[in-house]
Amino acid sequence: MKTILNIIWLVLSGFWLFLGYMLAGLLLCVTIIGIPFGVAAFRIGRYALWPFGYTTVDRRDAGSPSFVANVLWVILAGWWLALGHIFTGLALCVTIIGIPLGIANFKLIPVSLLPFGRDIVRTDEAFAGW
Fold this sequence. Notes:
Elements: H1 2-28, H2 35-49, E1 54-58, H3 64-92, H4 99-113, E2 118-122
Antiparallel strand pairs: 1-2
Helix pairs in contact: 1-2, 1-3, 3-4
């Protein structure tokens, strides 16, 4: 089922969101200081391309550098990327078939706003360490 949802996702919104993250990543990698932010955009872009079967988990070792990086991220790119997920999610929720895809878009909003201190893992690995 997740393969079918990923294919529908790719056609309706995943590819465009992926391109948005890649563009943000390239723009952020222009300076040396922005490279960690660009890498985060690339990581989330891959997640936005195939979201079904993956989830995010908080890293326990994330500290104050992640907080500072998240504040800068929200200012530089996170706000615009989150708005893209909100608008795409609302547009997809208009139809019954698009509701799971819209929910997946809403699931991507927290990681698009605050990516540092989070890891993207397979759904079956999310609670393996508990």
